[in-house]
Amino acid sequence: MSTNRPENTRRDLFRTLLGAGALAGTALAQRPSANGLPTRRLGRTGERVSILGIGGGHIGRVALGDKAAAIRLMHGAIDNGVTFFDNAWAYQDGASEEAMGDALQGGKRDKVFLMTKCSGRDTKFATQCLEDSLRRLKTDRLDLWQFHEVNHDNDPDWIFQKGGLEVALKAQKEGKVRHIGFTGHKDPRIHHKMLNMGDVWETAQMPINIMDFYYRSFQHEIVPLCLARDVGVIGMKSLGGGAPLGKIVQDTNITAEECVRYALSQPISVLIRGWMKVEQMEADVKIARDFQPLSGEEKQIILSKAKDEAGDGRHEQFKSTQRFENPIYRKMHGTLLEGT
């Protein structure tokens, strides 16, 4: 494992950003699949993944109320060509992974690219997460394992120094994990730190939405670095994520369809979407089939609607507040107050 020193980071930054522009077109290159849903290359993993992915957080919420409905939603997604499956050890105390594991029985496991996320930073917790996730998902391997919610400034240090990364690399050698990445939604600075601490990362997951263009922007600061290093970009929170969609529509007149089209027009490999109903999934699939990126003029029209509302984080409260941080991590970092 090589480590990028600060002096190398400074020296290479200009060259990195210069090359990223040329790589954006390559990242957006799509291939049709048998069912019409395009695929894109997931960075240096070399994998082809559907441009839409089903979000495990929402699946878990559906499963808590009606597990059969959650399974129908996942089966419908597969039938419509959505083959990137997102999940996390922390979602609904394991209920999301368990429901997904049930849905992928009967040969369906081999039809999807299965990703879940690790809450552990140290050896013991990371090992527990891996063992639990494999058991709940009823599989012997994960296509992608990502460190979850890398949102605190010292999370990268902990992952590298307390043994979490060693667990992931060992699992990769053993064939239990094929690819390794990380996620976060708080601040691009922390993604910078993770990317610059080592060259082990094959993917990085981050907010990709209209508001992000103007506020603590992952699009401006992290996507170019990922493209230059051939790290697959996984987008999330395309509708803002920190405020109800109705408020976004009311305040900006930006529709859900425009939000999804905008996110898919960025140089990302896959956009994770949170669906609670089959109809929501089918609406996004309709957008994604034969998808063509927005023109520059179309992007500017949409962005102009968001400009006055985007600059203070009111629509991205996962960046501007702690309201959307999982209690697991707040407790881990000593920021979980009693009664919250």
What does this structure look like?
This protein is α/β, with parallel strands linked by helices and 340 residues long. The protein has a single domain, classed as NADP-dependent oxidoreductase domain (TIM Barrel, Alpha-Beta Barrel). Helix content is 47%, strand content 13%. Strands 3-4-5-6-7-8-9-10 form an 8-stranded parallel β-barrel. The chain has a two-stranded antiparallel sheet with strand order 1-2. Helix 2 packs across helix 3, helix 2 packs across helix 4 and helix 5 crosses helix 7. The longest helix has 23 residues. The radius of gyration is 19 Å and the shape is globular. The N terminus is likely disordered.
Determine the N-to-C terminus distance. Answer: 40 Å
Question: Strand portion, in percent?
Answer: 5-15%
Low-confidence stretches: 1-11
- Let me know the number of strands: 10
Tell me the CATH topology.
TIM Barrel
Q: What is the highest CATH level, the class?
A: Alpha Beta
The tally of domains stands at: 1
Features:
eight-stranded parallel barrel, alpha/beta, TIM Barrel, 10 strands, about 350 residues
Topology of this protein?
Elements (H helix, E strand, L loop, with lengths): L5 H23 L10 E3 L6 E3 L1 E3 L1 H10 L1 H13 L4 E2 L9 H9 L9 E6 L4 H15 L4 E6 L7 H7 L2 H11 L2 E7 L4 H10 L5 E5 L10 H4 L1 H6 L3 E5 L8 H8 L3 H9 L5 E4 L4 H11 L7 H15 L6 H4 L6 H6 L8
Parallel strand pairs: 3-4, 3-10, 4-5, 5-6, 6-7, 7-8, 8-9, 9-10
Antiparallel strand pairs: 1-2
Helix pairs in contact: 2-3, 2-4, 3-4, 4-5, 5-7
Q: Concise description?
A:
This protein is of the alpha/beta class and about 350 residues long. It is built from 16 helices and 10 strands.
